[in-house]
Every structure is written in structure tokens, then in C-alpha cells.
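I hope you will forgive my troubling you with a question about protein structure. The full record is reproduced below for your convenience:

——
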Amino acid sequence: MQVGTGLSYSVVRESVLYGQFTTLEKPGEQEDLPFCTLEEACRNVEETVKALGVEQVRLEKACTIDYKAMQEKEDTWKDDPDFVERVEEKNYPYKGTWEPEDGMYTISLEILQDQVPVYDKFYTDTNGNEIGGYGAEARYTKDGIIALHVDGCPEIQKESDQWDILGAEDIADRLEDKFELLIMTGDLKISEFQLMYLTALDEQGGLQLIPIWRVKTEQERTVDGIMELYGYNELPEEEQEEVRKSLEEDVKDRPVEVGYIYYHAKSGEELLLP
């Protein structure tokens, strides 16, 4: 692969079938599946991406979605007449019965420039320009890689001096000021400072790499905090109880909210990136 190119590969039916369940990802769920270990799957994906010509990669995240979760999710669709009709007409992939070997790994790789990760999502800058990122994502099942997507970063004309930057301590001071203005729904901690590159337009319209800080936050989710934040406490008592029961299940499944805050590493300006 050349700089400025991307690649998408999929086994169509399997990719669509399993693609319905990527929302079941839960950070920290990394159990090995019967057909191979998660470590083996990650290594195979990394070797494949490197074989395509991407020299510098690093594992960003990997999750296991087991067959039970997908079976449970698919079963909820059986009462939907539109879904049943599409399945009967064979216009939609449907498995029906899931076995232990039918689980899936979802794997994301960071692609690096001079060993520094490049921001991997498309974003719109302050002038309305859409700018691409650089990263790789794969779905891995008993059949191997069933879907692989590599975003290609447009050709870079200029690299910014990554060392003439603010330190993590300076960014921490800005975070302290920011958090004083936020309404918190639970305990929050800073779990990571990561120096990265962001692709951005220069004055001549060419692309350059600018250094940014990515700050990873982890905030405890509580039912009481969410009720207060969204004003559910103002609902009639009966409705409050219904909302509370729903939130209890949601918080049980996702007790921590992971978020990211970005700062320009030279100016210290907060960047609103997706």
C-alpha cells in the first residue's frame, strides 16, 4: 500500500452477519475462543496489515464477543415482522443457532508515523474541510479475517516538530480548569496521556502532521448521577422507577464511561475531535 491509499476487504455474507453485533463490544472482555487465542488472532491481523505494506502498527484494542451474546441479540429480532420477512426472502443473513466456535474477535490497530500513532478518524476542521485519519480494523472468526478495513492517510507534505510542545503537566493544568466547569455523574480519573499526530491542512492547502495530546478519561457511571444529569428525577414517580430499572441494567453492563479529550500540543487549545 502507498501513502494516501486505503483498503477494504470482506467475506460479504459473514461480514454483514457479524457486523450486526459489533455494538456488543465491551472493553476488557478478552476471553479466548475455541478456534484460536485472542493473541494469535491479533498477531495474524498485524502480520496481514504489514504484508499489505503498512510498516508501523501497534495494537490499540481487541475484544471478544462470544456466541451467547450474539444468540441473545439475534433472538430479540424474531418478533420483528420486517426482519422475519427479509430472512424468509433470503435478503438478510441470519444464523439461528449459535455454537461456542461461532464467537468473534474485533481488533483495532494504530498505524504509526515515526513510532507516533496517527489519529485514526475522519474529522471536519474549523473551515469545514473533511480530513482523513489512519488506522486498521478487523473482524476475526473461525474462518479467519472476514473483514479488514485500512484507512489511508493522504500524502503528507510537511511534518511538524513534535518536540517543541507542551508537556503533560501543562495539559493537566488545563484539564483541571475544564473539570471545574463540568457536571460530574460519578468519580472520574485520568488514565492515560498519549502523544499523537493529527493530519491537518497548512496555509498552502497541503497536509501536515501536527502533534496533539490525547487524554483518556474513565468516569464511574451511577444510576443516581445519570438520573440527576438528565432530569429524570423530575418525572412522575412511576416513570422514575421504570427509568431507574432500565439504568440499573445499563450501568451493570457498562459501569465505566471511557472518553477522550484532545489538545493541540503546541498551543494548548482543546480540539473537538470525534
